[in-house]
Write a structure and sequence with these properties.
By secondary structure, the chain is mainly α. Among the domains are: 68 residues, no CATH class; 56 residues; 68 residues. The chain is elongated, with a radius of gyration of 35 Å.
Amino acid sequence: MDSKAGIISIRCGEKIEYRSLPAVGGTEVYPPQAGQNTEDRMKQQKLRIENSKRKTLGFLTFALLVFSSNLPYAVSALVSAKARAGVGETWHLGKDQDWKAVSAEGNGKFLLAVAEAKKLVNTGQTKAARKAFVQLKKDFPEIAGPDLDLFIQAELAFCEGNFTKTVRSHDKLLTEYPKSELRAAALERQFAIAKEYLAGRKRRVLGIFKIKGYAEGIRIMERITDRVGIETPMGLSAALAVAENYEKREKFNEAFLKWWEISSRWDTGQIGKDALLGMARCKHAVYNKHPEHKRSRYDASSLSTARSYYEKFRLLYPKDAEEIGIDRILKEIDEQLANKQFAISQYYQRTTNRQAANLYYNMVKDNWPDSKAAKIAEEMLTKNLCSEETKK
């Protein structure tokens, strides 16, 4: 006789008898149905028992946590138990702070109604939107809760053109109710507002002054990326918007850092290609931002960095490099690097330190032999050598 989890089987030759016994969680193990073979019957009984175990363990955990006043973890345990038991329900925190089950069908209808209300908001129909939200709460009382109240508050503020209040209310919703069904809609609204700011929309400061909302747009986009992750479509779109905006406003160091962040997560594919080129372009632009006749006075480390990124791009994407003209850009960078070193040699030439000057002239001639500066450096070397011989 075998005994396992409430099943007792008595082997009589090839025949197996099942006795109905109460199993874990009060679920009875039923006798086999006619036409089932032994293996199928055993699998069926085992599945029922495992299901019963999971349900019981989950609900016991829930009960213990409730009695210990740990409601959030209790809810988590309850939802987890139902999920493991195969119960397809969504749980929502209502106004009375009680968790209520919502069917998948009801949840879909709710989100569809929210989308319809958002259309009214987008077209500026404040009164119609307000009525739609009131009807929404009546039609879905099991879903209506504090997160929906915050969402409605934010959307009506948006409808009235109050972007600051909209962002603040959605921030509160996303922070206090991170698992809300309205999370995606709130993030989409914040993304749209951030794009408006990045496009140059002004925002009121201290209720008096109006300034361009670039900084606010950047802040919102950064928060979106932090919330959803840069590996998600929305997180990536937010990061790209920030990088492109910085570059457009000639904040090249900030743009480079953002492109670098994108590249660290997306080092292949179209995004990886764009990020690599963005890093090269921004580093080159950092140097070129200075007036041309003064560039040689500034640090040239950004040129060396840009050159390394352009060379990597040419190696990985030869066809694209040819179309963009990477060879021409690299030649320009070499000329700039040569000019920078030549400017140093000129400084030593003026201070009558010929030995140091000749050192830099040689460096220009050896490292960038095809540059214009190399030809001048060679002439200066010859002149200095002749001058030394004359003195002797």
